[in-house]
User: What shape does this take?
Amino acid sequence: MTHRMMFRMILGAASFALAAPALADEPGPGGSKPPVPVTGEQVYQMVCQACHMADGKGGVGAGKVPALASNPKLKVAAYPIIMVSKGRGAMPWFYDTLSPAQTAAVITYVRTHFGNAYPEPVTAADVSKLAGPPPAAGH
Amino acid sequence: MEQTGQKTTRRQLLSTIGVLGGTALLYNMMTTLGYAAETQFAGPPNLSGAKKGASVIVLGAGLAGMLAAYELTKAGYKVQIIEYQGRAGGRNWSLYGGDTYTELGGATQKVGFAPGNYLNPGPWRIPHHHRTLLHYCKQFGVALEPFIQFNHNAYVHNTDAFGGKPQRFKALAADFEGNVAELLGKALDQKSLDAEVTAEDRDRLKEALREWGMLDKDMRYAKNLRSAEHRGFDRPPGGGVNGAPTPSDVFALHDVLDSGIWRNMAFFMNSEFQTTMFQPVGGMGMIGKAFAAQVQPLITYNAKVTKIDQDKKGVKVTYADTGTGTVTEAKADWCVCTIPLTVLSQIESNLSDDLQAAIAAVPYSNSVKIGLEMKRRFWEEDASIYGGHSFTNQEISLISYPNNNFFKDGPAVLLGAFASGMGGYHLAGMTPEQRIEAALAQGSVFHPESYRKEFLSGASVAWNRVPWILGCCARWTEETRKAHYQTLVAMDNRVVLAGEHASYVGCWMEGALLSSIDAITRLHKRALEA
Assistant: This one.
């Protein structure tokens, strides 16, 4: 089964929070039902590789997207958990868009791929414990 | 400007008030006089009398930076602009046939559009109340034309409604309103609302529901020529023998609710998305070009800022030429920094700890735009859609039809995706070729016979991968506003930040300009006091 087929099959009801008043120039009500990734690899391909690239090597322009490939900072799981959940600088937070299970899956995936070898899995409980409450929407 | 008339015009009065009392007073007066309830723009800044030899270095040649340079030069400052790209305009940008664009990660696209066709990767529409931007467009000679924001005849598609078949906005909106009107009418008749509504208002409300919802004399929303007047006819009115129109079937309330149409209806009611909206003739990038024409000699291109260092005497900015690597130090008395926070947070500086914390606290949103050039305007010729958007709950979010050159033969570019959120990340993570394929696959739901058949070429911009910003727009929360916004906009010794990120009109050009005017007004005041 291809990933695409899997995504189609596991389409979940998109969480549609009461939309905040539109202030930014945004698409509007469209795009509310993207495929929902489940495995760490799916989360990586659908979210992380937008910036960190398919090979995990990041990129450099006026600023830099750090490489996740062969990155010793991934050794302590708390670091990627807090970065993914809360964000920092150019890295956005994902606590409101990825579930603890999705966050745990993708961190486990990255910690065991792209030249990283930190086999101890990260669990959804680890993520919930460290992530704290999600930021309130604002404008 | 006319100054010769004997009578004091309202404009002259406002101008005088502006000079005497500053912009805050002017804004209050304008509101009192019935102006400006929609904008904080109180006219261009009236700066003058800079100290002899005073200098400002502006970082970034986007709209905020170029406006700062333009107005500060007029005020008497010696101004230099440092720009990372080989192009001015920042996010104000259009891609034309022949342009080449390389994204972060190295994928390069050569745009293949026909002459005159373009994709606006960033801003693409201007609300009628963004008066700062409209003011400078007029002043700098940017021709504007209508942007068709609201098109009743475009489609709404939802994979969970009508078996995935798109429906016209007008049919869904009419049926939503008609059903709501009928139900509310029943509630009134059943006296469910007698505690809320007086007898007189109940009668008036019933009449309003009948007229608004296109109900029949029995207060029913049904298949008839009244409902067809809003939702569309089966056979439209014509001439001669078969001139009489026939009505169309109305949708069941359940199906209408599945479509989520109220979200589209509400979207068009948001102040930033109400008509009239505008676009520049020839592409949004015409605005950046017009601003650049005013300040061209001041701009140093291809310069990557590596350090910002200020002390009691001035500001020193170190930058490297992106081609040769040559390092230069530029010095000035003051600095207006418009570098996006995603990049600024990575630049070495001795800005205050509080400001650096604020800069690092604001991540950016994402967005992907995809332009698809088609051989002919099948949406006009086959579907009677002239501009506007068809919405979908798929990742592309919408397709949007060109607002210019109606009825013309030859290729035209439609916007094949304006994706954000999770769908935006997914499309951004694809190769440019994969993005085009996804846009064709998803957009085909609206025009299945023509979409792939008429496709010529495409171009995409994923803002996460735009090398000079790494994101789309500043993304504030209530908490970060409270903790960091005032620090972010305050002057930090000799440096002040400006841009959409330093405004409450985030992600709009108007926010960048209002922020710039506010920043340079405070900078000028400080410089005069120094």
Remarks:
- Chain A touches chain B through 46 residues (CB under 8 Å).
- The CA atoms of residues 14 and 33 of chain A lie 5 Å apart.
